[in-house]
Every structure is written in structure tokens, then in C-alpha cells.
Design brief:
Elements (H helix, E strand, L loop, with lengths): L3 H27 L6 H9 L15 H7 L18 H11 L4 H25 L3 H7 L1 H6 L4 H4 L36 H13 L2 E5 L6 H12 L7 E5 L8 H9 L10 H9 L4 E6 L5 H14 L3 E7 L8 E5 L27 H13 L10 H10 L4 H9 L6 H7 L3 H4 L16 H11 L2 H10 L6 E2 H9 L10 H17 L4 E5 L2 E5 L2 H13 L3 H21 L6 H8 L3 H9 L8 H8 L2 H7 L3 H14 L7 H21 L2 H20 L7 H24 L3 H14 L8 H16 L2 H18 L2 H17 L3 H18 L2 H17 L3 H15 L11 H18 L1 H13 L2 H37 L1
Parallel strand pairs: 1-4, 1-5, 2-3, 3-4
Antiparallel strand pairs: 6-8, 7-8
Helix pairs in contact: 1-5, 1-9, 4-5, 5-9, 9-10, 11-12, 12-13, 14-16, 15-17, 20-22, 20-23, 21-22, 24-25, 24-27, 27-30, 28-29, 28-30, 29-30, 30-31, 30-32, 31-32, 32-33, 32-34, 33-34, 34-35, 34-36, 35-36, 36-37, 36-38, 37-38, 38-39, 38-40, 39-40, 39-41, 39-42, 40-41
Length: 925
């Protein structure tokens, strides 16, 4: 039976680990400047004004710094501030949620764990529990300054959280020998696992092959071994092939010899009755049924038994708690989080994946180290391998033969590169090569799951569950056809099986389930697809589905469904990219791609991918020349040409835009002039709509060149046609162009009339995107007239619409206008923050600032000149850099909050002055 001292030591170890995990989580975010510590403190201090915080002390800068010390909060002589428990962690999580949602979610879980551990420690040891922990050797030797230990020469125990691992008590007999290599990262999983094994009797570590379930389970059992005075026992199931041998293997792990007269479980129950024991069952996935039966029987027979299992799939019994084991975290290429050099030039990675690769690479190739020179190549390798520990270890051994750059160049062919020659000789055969790891998973799948795996491997960037059901419901397994009524049921079962087997991850995105595959899992599926004789049918199905999705979106752009469709297409960008840029399969009709192009113009503009969209459209137009076989085919091509012309103009490529527009105009002119039977009314109407659309597009090109007479002529000609394409927004765009030309001429009254007319049309149709830009232009008109309050009201309305469709370019132009208004009101610092933050949106978008409209860009230029004069170059550069590190929406929230505070102060001063003027005559009387 565990003593009170055992419980105290267990809880103390868990609390120290939890405090380090809290520090890692928040420290990792603020170290990147997204948000900065100063901004985080400012947001937290605002919590004191909320009802939920009225009874608690605020979170200020010193308290946040105290929490970031991790276990250092418990050191002797340290002031005993409160620890970051449930409520405090929830407040910090709310402040981080907009910019670091994953870290915010982790933080809340850690905070709950800290509160629970504090309560248990108080119950176990009374008021002196903090002093006792602070005086313990593992806190004092570890301290909070563990980074120099990571930099020491030779082999070392590296952790992704930058903290020295808390030593655990001696492991009782029966546990597997210690691993010779270091254990990296997994702080949060160890905290959660330690708490779960205290509360529940069966904990299953579930994850994809090679993710490190066994190593994590071994470390976890070592950490909690002191709670089990009668031992920790490990059972390896990988080499077992028959379910009936599971019980015998468990008995053998406890030193029991099986006999014909007694069942192994009965003998085990008799031998262990009354004992507190921990059992580790490793690699259960191929013997799930028998493992589940064995564990259930043991838990029923032995009330004090605890079980930790590792599997690619849960055991699915009532007593089970599942801890998902995810790949190690990997930063983006160029992410400054990893750029922390010591005096020798060595980088101490904050990413667990980088730390693992660096450690194993140093062992394989003495003298290897991660530096600022090779860091990006290391990150590329880690990202391509999804942060999978086994793959990283095999890749690191390849540095005996290859340079790091050669490894990074060849890593795309991961299954050939990471073959048996790179694996550990003593490892199980399926852990010696990357392909063998997934061959094992493939063998465990049903035919339906294998077909779904191959179909989903074509989906780049993931796929909605509903889309996956449609795709896989039409996917035959080995060429067999499923009856129509059962396809949805069969598809869902196959997808659920892939999720259960840890081959597919799921996430809740806006109330909808989205499925994701690791790139390595996806690459394996693509290899299997290439070996499949029916592979081309999978490809055609995938292309047809997403091309049709884009076409339906384009048809709805002029309606109230526009916002829904823009949000719908946003996460499918990667799927659209690979479809548009890849060569079409034989037999695919050009009409399918041309129809889909109609959905790309607004999608690429609103998602901030104008440059990429312009490239896509050039590929489509070059690949599919203007057809001549029928008016219908010509009209589809012309609509695609309009999209190409629009995106090329937005990209600033006016020459190619004019070329495409000219080709379409000539084709429409030739069609109307060609002899032959009279067109049907519908075809005549469609030709007129397209003619009006290209006139509007020519007007837009002229407006960008500030040729106001020509722009007005084209826009008026477009409106005179009398037939306008609703999906291409021809009529409101023509009116808006006339209104913008009037703004540039200084004709304020005419501009307001035209813009309000276009706004009324867009509001009637429910068109969200165009309303954003109309409100933007109206804000400029009011701002130029000095009507700041009216301008701000228009900007607020426009920003609400921008958030509804997540329109990055709209957010950028509105923000630049806000900076101009802030500068004109004398708030130079807030204006500079906005200018810096919006700079991060414009640069990667492939769009000239303000789409090349010089009149609009002049406001930004004036704002920058004004704030530079006000702040001085040094203060300006500092504020601009701070804005670049912040999320644009966070900066906008701060800026508008400042406006509201100034308005409130102004109103109070006005009220006070009014009261003074009323009371003054009485005082004189």
C-alpha cells in the first residue's frame, strides 16, 4: 500500500513538471513576440474590469514573470505568490487564444492539473507543502536555469521544454532496462499521463506508428514507479501472432509458469491479490480483441492493478482513458523561435523535433550541431518527416553518408532514403525502416480502409468529413461495387477505422469535422495508389469533386451565399492548387476546369493569394486555348479569361491582363459577327453579359492607371449594355468604379451618390465582399472631408464584414486607412503599430499596395510621413517593428479601443464644460 510519503513525492514530481510545462507553453509564445509580453500583460490587466475577475487579484507583469520561472516558484527564499491554477490559466489562455489557440488549449489543461495537484498536496502534507518541495534535491539541482546544461558537451538528456528532467525514484524489479539514448520533450504528455494513471486504472497511449508511444510509456512508468511498491512489469506484444498467447505473455512477465490445470489469468490473480502493481502492455494494435479481454479480466480480478497500454488503436473498453500521442512540434522554416545561439554558435532548439534530430545527429556524426547557417535545412527535414521521432532518428543516421543539404534535398523520397540500412540493428524489424512501419499499419487495415487511405492521400491540406464520405463512398475496394444505399455507411466505417488506427487525425473546425493526414502517412498512401491498377479512377474522382466545388462557389458569388462559399473554399486551397497546377488526366473535359475557374477570383483575392491565383489562371488559359466548337464552350472560356484578367490586374501584371482581355474581346466580337443561325435568346443574353463584364474590367485597368476619362467611359458603356453577370458583380463594380473616379476628381457629392447606389445593390443581393470595399471608399470620402466619426463608423462596419469572410486583403486596405485617420488625430504610436502589422499582410500576398490605386496609397504615405515627424526615426522604427510582431486583428482591437477611450474623455470634458457654463452665471449672481 502506498504511504503518505509516497503520495507526497508523486504529487510533488507531478507539480514540478506541470509548472515547467506552464512556463514552456507561455514562454514559447511570448518569446516569438506573438503577442509580446508587454501586450499580453496589457490584455491581462484589462481582465480586472470584467465581472468574473472582480473578486481576484489582477495578473500583472511581475506575477507573470514569477509564473514563467516554472519550478523556480518553489525554491526556498522565493516569495510564495499564488501558482497559476485553473482560473489564472484560463485568463492567460483567453489572452493568447487569438494568436496561439493550440497553446491556449494546452494552458488550460495544465492550469487545471496544477489546481488539482495543489489540493492533493495540501491534503497530504498540510500548510508546509511548498517549503518541503522547495527543499527537495530535484528542485534545487534543477532550478530554473537549465539551458546551460543543454549546451554542455557530449551526450545529454535534452528536453523540448528546456528543463532538466525530474529524477524519479528507483524502479522496482520487473521494469525494462533504461534506454541508452536521451529522452526528448513530451512534458505535457508526461504531466497528463501521470495525473491520469492516478485517477484511472487503464491508460492507453494511442498514436501513429513511429510517434514514440513506447518511449513515452517507458518514461511515464519510470516516473510513476514509486507509487507501485510491488513493481512495474513490461510486456512486449509485437512478436506475438495469436490472441490466446497474450494472457500467457502477461503471466510470464510476472514470472509465473503456466500449467495445463490453471488458466494464466486465474494464477496471476491469485499471485497478485492485494498487491499494488503497474502493468505496461506494449504494441497491442494487432491483438486488440484479446488484449481488451485480458485487461478487462485483470482489472476485475485485481482492484489495485493499474495498466498502461500502447497501441495504434484504442482497446475500446469501458475502463479506458485514451492519451493521444502526437508528433513532436516543428517550427516553420525561418521561424525565429529556434534562433537562440550560445557563444559557440550552437543553437539550443526550443522545438522538440529539432532537439531530437540534433541529439541523434550528434551521436551519429560527432561534431554536428544546429547553427544559424544550417537551421533551415534541419527544419525542412523535420517538417517533411512530420516530427515523427522514429523517422527523425533514422534520418539522423543518414548523416554518416550524406551532408545535411543532401539529406534535405532527398527527404521527399523518404521511404527509399530511410530504408533498413538506417535503422537501429536491435530494433524490431518494423522499426528499422520507415516503409516497414507503415506496411504494418496497411496490413492491419480492411480493404475499405485501404481504399479510403488511398483516396484521402490525394487530399492536400485535409478534407471535411462530409466531403471524405462523398469521395470514399464512390471508391471501390479492389474494384468491387457497393450498393448505393450502403455507400455512406461503408465510407463512414472506413474513415472511422482510419481515425481509430491513428492514420487520420480529426479536428473540429467551426462545428465541422475536418480530417488530416500526416504528410508521411499521405506519401505512403500515394505510393500504394500508384501501385493500384484503379489508381486513375481515384484521381479523376478527386479532381471532379473539387472542381465542381469551385464552380458552385463561383456561381454563388453574387448572392447571399457568397460568404458561406468563401469560407467553404478557404481550407480547400491546397486541394485546388494541386488540381489546377497538375496536368489533367486523359479524358477530363476542359469545361470542368474552366467552370471551376469562376470560383477562383474571389477566393484568391480574399485569401490573400492573388499572385498565386494569377499564376493558376495563366496555366489554365495556356493549357486550354480559346475553343471554337460551340458558343457554350466559348462562353466558359471567356468567363475563365475574365477571372484571369481580374487577378492579373490585381497582381499588377497589366500587360498580360490586357493580352487576355483582348483575346476574349476578339472572340466575343467574332462570334457576334459570324454568319449562321440566329442565337437563342439565352445565348444572346450570355454574350451581352460577358461583353459588359469585359467593359467593366477594361474600366478597372484604366482606373488603376489613373486614366479617369477612359475609366468612366468603359464603366458607363458596361452599364449601358443592360445585361450584367450577377456572379461577376458587373453592375455594382461598374458603379463603384464611377464613384471612385469621382472621388479622385474631388467630386464628393457625385461620388457619394454612386457609391451609395452600388452599396444598396450589394446589400440587396447579400454580397459581403463588395460591401467591404464600398464602405472603405466611403470611409475615405468622409475622412478627406474631416468627418472622422463617420469615417470610423464605415470602417467598423467594413471590418465586421471582413471578419465574416476572413478577407485578408480587405483587412489590409481598411487598416491602412485606419492608420491614416489615427495619424490625422495625433495618435502617432497607434498609427505606427497598425502600419507595421499590416505590412505583414501585404508582403506575401502578391498584390501591389492598395491594388495600385495611387490615390489610396497617398493616404498611407502621408500617414507614414506624419508619424515619422511626430515620433522621430528611433521611436518610429521601434513601434513599427512591434506592430510587425503582432497579429493585425489584435492591433486593430487596441486601436479602436483607443478611439473609444478618447471619445469618452472628450464627451466627459464636453459635459463638464456644459455644466460649468450653466452654473457660472448663478455663481456670479
Amino acid at each position: 500500500m502506498a504511504t503518505g510519503e509516497d503520495c507526497f513525492e508523486s504529487f510533488a514530481h507531478s507539480l514540478v513538471r506541470a509548472l515547467d510545462a506552464w512556463s514552456e507553453c507561455v514562454g514559447g509564445v511570448v518569446s516569438t513576440g506573438r503577442p509580446t509580453r508587454k501586450v499580453l500583460v496589457r490584455v491581462l490587466e484589462q481582465e480586472r474590469n470584467t465581472p468574473m475577475w472582480a473578486s481576484r487579484a489582477p495578473i500583472d507583469g511581475p506575477l507573470l514573470s514569477y509564473w514563467l520561472r516554472g519550478r523556480g516558484q518553489l525554491l526556498p527564499g522565493t516569495k510564495h505568490n499564488r501558482l497559476p491554477g485553473t482560473e489564472d490559466s484560463a485568463a492567460v489562455a483567453r489572452a493568447l487564444k487569438a494568436q496561439a489557440p493550440a497553446d491556449a488549449e494546452r494552458l488550460q489543461a495544465i492550469g487545471r492539473e496544477i489546481s488539482e495537484l495543489v489540493a492533493m498536496l495540501q491534503e497530504t502534507a498540510g500548510r508546509g507543502w511548498r517549503r518541503r518541495i522547495g527543499e527537495s534535491s530535484f528542485v534545487q539541482t534543477g532550478g530554473t536555469d537549465a539551458l546551460p546544461l543543454q549546451r554542455a558537451e557530449g551526450r545529454r538528456d535534452v528536453h523540448g521544454d528546456g528543463a532538466v528532467h525530474v529524477p524519479a525514484p528507483h524502479v522496482p524489479a520487473g521494469h525494462r532496462m533504461e534506454q541508452a539514448t536521451s529522452f526528448v520533450g513530451r512534458t505535457l504528455e508526461l504531466v497528463e499521463g501521470s495525473a491520469l494513471i492516478e485517477r484511472c486504472r487503464l491508460l492507453t497511449l494511442v498514436g501513429v506508428g513511429g510517434v514514440g508511444k513506447t518511449r513515452l510509456a517507458q518514461r511515464l512508468t519510470r516516473d510513476v514507479a514509486h507509487r507501485f511498491e510491488h513493481g512495474v512489469h513490461w510486456v512486449e506484444l509485437a512478436d506475438l501472432h495469436h490472441g490466446h498467447s497474450v494472457a500467457a505473455a502477461v503471466g510470464a512477465a510476472f514470472g509465473l509458469q503456466g500449467s495445463a490445470e490453471h488458466a494464466p489469468l486465474c494464477e496471476l490473480a491469485s499471485a497478485l491479490q492485494g498487491r499494488r502493481v503497474l502493468l505496461l502492455l506494449d504494441n497491442c494494435e494487432h491483438l486488440l480483441d484479446e488484449c481488451a479481454r485480458t485487461v478487462r479480466a485483470l482489472l476485475a480480478l485485481l482492484p489495485r492493478l493499474r495498466v498502461i497500454a500502447t497501441s495504434r488503436q484504442p482497446l475500446d473498453i469501458g475502463e479506458e482513458y485514451v492519451l493521444r500521442v502526437m508528433p513532436l512540434d516543428v517550427p516553420r522554416v525561418g521561424d525565429g523561435r529556434a534562433r537562440q545561439e550560445d557563444a559557440t554558435g550552437r543553437i539550443c532548439p526550443e522545438s522538440s523535433a529539432l532537439a531530437l534530430f540534433a541529439d541523434r545527429a550528434e551521436a551519429a556524426c560527432p561534431g554536428f550541431r544546429v547553427t544559424s547557417t544550417n537551421q533551415d535545412a534541419v527544419i525542412r527535414v523535420c517538417r517533411m518527416l512530420d516530427g515523427l521521432p522514429l523517422a527523425l532518428e533514422i534520418a539522423a543516421r543518414r548523416l554518416r553518408t550524406l551532408t545535411l543539404e543532401e539529406l534535405a534535398q532527398r527527404i521527399e523520397y523518404r521511404f527509399r532514403l530511410l530504408g533498413p540500412g538506417g535503422g537501429e540493428r536491435t530494433a524490431h524489424p518494423r522499426h528499422r525502416a520507415l516503409r516497414a512501419l507503415f506496411d504494418w499499419s496497411w496490413d492491419l487495415c480492411t480493404d475499405g480502409e485501404r481504399a479510403a487511405w488511398q483516396q484521402l492521400s490525394l487530399c492536400a491540406g485535409g478534407v471535411l468529413l462530409t466531403d471524405a464520405e462523398q469521395l470514399c463512398g464512390a471508391t471501390p475496394a479492389h474494384g468491387t461495387q457497393t450498393p448505393g444505399g450502403n455507400r455512406a455507411v461503408v465510407a463512414f466505417a472506413a474513415l472511422s477505422g482510419l481515425v481509430d488506427k491513428s492514420l487520420v487525425d480529426r479536428a473540429d473546425v467551426g462545428g465541422h469535422t475536418r480530417l488530416h493526414m500526416l504528410e508521411t502517412v499521405r506519401a505512403y498512401g500515394l505510393e500504394r495508389l500508384r501501385e493500384n491498377s484503379h489508381g486513375q479512377s481515384f484521381v479523376r474522382r478527386h479532381r471532379a469533386y473539387f472542381l465542381d466545388l469551385a464552380a458552385r462557389a463561383g456561381a454563388a458569388y453574387g448572392s447571399a451565399e457568397q460568404a458561406d462559399w468563401l469560407r467553404r473554399l478557404r481550407p480547400e486551397h491546397s486541394n485546388l492548387r494541386q488540381i489546377v497546377t497538375a496536368a489533367p488526366p486523359a479524358g477530363e473535359p476542359a469545361e470542368a476546369v474552366l467552370r471551376a475557374a469562376q470560383g477562383l477570383w474571389l477566393h484568391c483575392l480574399t485569401s490573400g493569394r492573388v499572385g498565386e491565383g494569377a499564376h493558376w489562371m495563366r496555366v489554365i488559359i495556356d493549357r486550354h486555348p480559346c475553343p471554337s466548337e460551340s458558343p457554350g464552350a466559348l462562353f466558359s472560356w471567356c468567363r475563365a479569361a475574365w477571372v484571369a484578367g481580374f487577378l492579373l490586374l490585381m497582381h499588377g501584371d497589366h500587360d498580360n491582363a490586357e493580352h487576355v482581355i483582348g483575346m476574349a474581346h476578339r472572340s466575343l466580337t467574332d462570334l457576334s459577327a459570324s454568319p449562321g443561325p440566329a442565337y437563342a435568346t439565352a445565348e444572346e443574353d450570355e454574350r451581352a453579359e460577358l461583353a459588359a463584364a469585359f467593359l467593366q474590367l477594361r474600366g478597372l485597368a484604366a482606373l488603376m492607371k489613373q486614366d479617369l476619362p477612359q475609366a468612366s467611359t468603359y464603366a458607363l458603356s458596361s452599364l449601358a449594355v443592360g445585361r450584367w453577370s450577377t456572379p461577376l458583380l458587373t453592375q455594382p463594380q461598374s458603379l463603384a468604379q464611377l464613384g471612385l473616379a469621382a472621388v479622385m476628381r474631388g467630386e464628393r457629392t457625385r461620388a457619394l451618390s454612386l457609391l451609395e447606389q452600388a452599396l444598396a445593390i450589394s446589400e440587396t443581393r447579400g454580397d459581403t465582399w463588395h460591401r467591404c470595399y464600398l464602405l472603405w471608399i466611403l470611409a475615405i470620402v468622409h475622412g478627406e472631408a474631416g468627418e472622422i466619426s463617420e469615417a470610423l463608423d464605415r470602417l467598423r462596419c467594413a471590418l465586421r464584414l471582413v471578419e465574416e469572410i476572413e478577407e485578408r486583403m480587405g483587412e489590409a486596405v481598411l487598416s491602412d486607412t485606419l492608420a491614416w485617420l489615427l495619424a490625422s488625430q495625433g495618435d502617432a504610436r497607434a498609427a505606427t503599430l497598425v502600419l507595421g502589422a499590416v505590412d505583414r499582410v501585404w508582403k506575401p500576398s502578391g498584390v501591389p499596395r492598395h491594388f495600385g490605386f495611387a490615390h489610396m496609397a497617398a493616404h498611407r504615405r502621408r500617414a507614414m510621413e506624419q508619424v515619422r515627424r511626430t515620433l522621430g526615426e528611433t521611436a518610429y522604427a521601434h513601434a513599427y517593428g512591434e506592430g510587425q510582431r503582432l497579429a493585425l486583428r489584435e492591433v486593430l482591437r487596441i486601436a479602436f479601443a483607443g478611439f473609444e477611450i478618447r471619445d469618452e474623455r472628450h464627451s466627459r470634458r464636453a459635459d463638464k464644460g456644459s455644466r460649468s457654463s450653466v452654473s457660472s452665471p448663478r455663481a456670479r449672481a
